[in-house]
């Protein structure tokens, strides 16, 4: 917390030396230069974007080099912070979109030169994999697929030949179990390949809109009647389209709905799909809170409580969202309110 007390600038309870000087013998230009220099002290020394804004006008009065380097649209000073750092519509989450990336945002108000200012710091989200991490995953998966497919195909062929020559039913059953195991390995490889094939290149072409009602209806229709009865779709009348290609939208919502169906409990088994706007959808359900060790890595692969599950679902959903500049957030996670995931596309300018 920064504050102004008796001519001394304080940050987190510590005096910051040299923050204030006597200006009555200086001209305005020198005063301004010294003021900017002192604000630079507050924003310097960090590796993430930092801004100082006027709380009343929301105007940016200082930034660090990281923030300026991330945005190649001229100087940021003098611009409105809300035009540069954007929040998702209808969301009070501490997540914002800046220069093509999603960040967690912290805001620290303080007084300086009789002005109400605030320090805004944008930090990378802690529980999502970086682009570099994803690239390494894909390289590893490519190697595994290349090395495993040929020997498995050979094993599958030999098993079929052995089965054709078997006369005893007991021996046939043993070979069939071997075939089932081989097929399970192929299924695992197919799932790994499906993650590998999701493009890491963001789609920056013209926005392709989706008839969101049709996509949701198609996903829900694939469930048995008793599950369909527990899924409630809430949609404002004006929200008929969603600003994401149909195939990607369906992949993301299918995963979020499967996750909700799998973890919904008993009489709390109502699942809500809230179409909040053309750029945000929330899927929520009742149930026990997700344990913290899983929450901390929930968008990473191989994080699952199911023995037969690779834990790729939320990872793939996140990659499809990123492909369209969006992201997925765990917005609620407690026994009282249940679990909610929010899929957001970049807020409109």
State the gist of this model:
39% of the residues lie in helices and 23% in strands. The protein has 349 residues and is of the alpha+beta class. Strands 5-4-8-7-6 form a five-stranded antiparallel β-sheet. It has a five-stranded mixed β-sheet with strand order 10-12-13-15-14, covered by helices on one side. A three-stranded antiparallel β-sheet has the order 1-2-3, with no helix packed on it.
Describe the protein's topology.
Elements: E1 2-5, E2 8-11, E3 14-15, H1 28-43, E4 50-54, E5 60-63, H2 65-70, H3 81-84, E6 95-98, E7 101-112, E8 115-123, H4 131-165, H5 169-196, E9 210-211, H6 212-221, H7 225-228, E10 231-234, E11 241-242, H8 246-263, E12 271-277, E13 280-285, H9 292-295, H10 313-323, E14 327-334, E15 338-344
Parallel strand pairs: 10-12
Antiparallel strand pairs: 1-2, 2-3, 4-5, 4-8, 6-7, 7-8, 9-11, 12-13, 13-15, 14-15
Helix pairs in contact: 4-5, 6-8, 8-10
Characterise this structure.
It is a single chain. The protein has 349 residues and is α+β, with helices and mostly antiparallel strands. The chain is built from 10 helices and 15 strands. The strands form 4 sheets. It has a 5-stranded antiparallel sheet. It has a 5-stranded mixed sheet with strand order 10-12-13-15-14, with helices on one face. α4 (131-165) runs antiparallel to α5, α6 (212-221) crosses α8 (246-263) and α8 runs antiparallel to α10 (313-323). The protein is elongated.
């Amino acid at each position: 917390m920064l504050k102004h007390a008796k001519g001394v600038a304080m940050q987190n309870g510590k005096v910051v030396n040299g923050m204030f000087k006597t200006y009555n013998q200086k001209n305005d230009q020198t005063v301004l230069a010294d003021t900017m220099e002192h604000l630079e002290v507050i924003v310097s020394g960090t590796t993430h974007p930092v801004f100082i804004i006027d709380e009343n006008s929301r105007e940016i009065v200082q930034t660090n080099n990281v923030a300026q380097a991330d945005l190649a649209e001229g100087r940021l000073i003098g611009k409105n912070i809300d035009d540069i750092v954007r929040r998702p519509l209808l969301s009070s989450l501490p997540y914002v979109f800046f220069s093509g990336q999603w960040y967690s945002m912290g805001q620290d108000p303080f007084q300086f030169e009789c002005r109400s200012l605030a320090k805004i710091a944008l930090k990378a989200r802690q529980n999502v994999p970086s682009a570099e991490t994803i690239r390494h995953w894909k390289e590893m998966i490519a190697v595994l697929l290349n090395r495993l497919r040929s020997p498995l195909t050979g094993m599958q062929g030999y098993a079929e030949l052995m089965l054709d020559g078997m006369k005893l039913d007991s021996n046939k059953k043993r070979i069939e179990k071997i075939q089932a195991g081989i097929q399970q390995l192929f299924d695992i490889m197919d799932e790994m390949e499906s993650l590998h094939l999701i493009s890491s290149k963001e789609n920056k072409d013209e926005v392709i809109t989706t008839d969101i009602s049709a996509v949701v209806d198609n996903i829900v229709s694939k469930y048995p009647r008793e599950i369909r009865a527990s899924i409630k779709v809430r949609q404002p009348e004006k929200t008929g389209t969603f600003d994401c290609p149909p195939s990607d939208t369906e992949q993301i919502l299918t995963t979020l709905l499967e996750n909700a169906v799998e973890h919904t409990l008993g009489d709390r088994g109502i699942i809500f799909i809230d179409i909040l706007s053309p750029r945000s959808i929330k899927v929520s359900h009742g149930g026990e809170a997700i344990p913290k060790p899983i929450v901390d890595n929930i968008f990473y692969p191989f994080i699952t409580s199911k023995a037969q599950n690779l834990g790729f679902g939320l990872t793939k959903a996140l990659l499809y969202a990123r492909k369209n500049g969006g992201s997925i957030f765990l917005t609620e996670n407690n026994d009282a309110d249940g679990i909610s995931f929010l899929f957001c596309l970049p807020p409109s300018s």
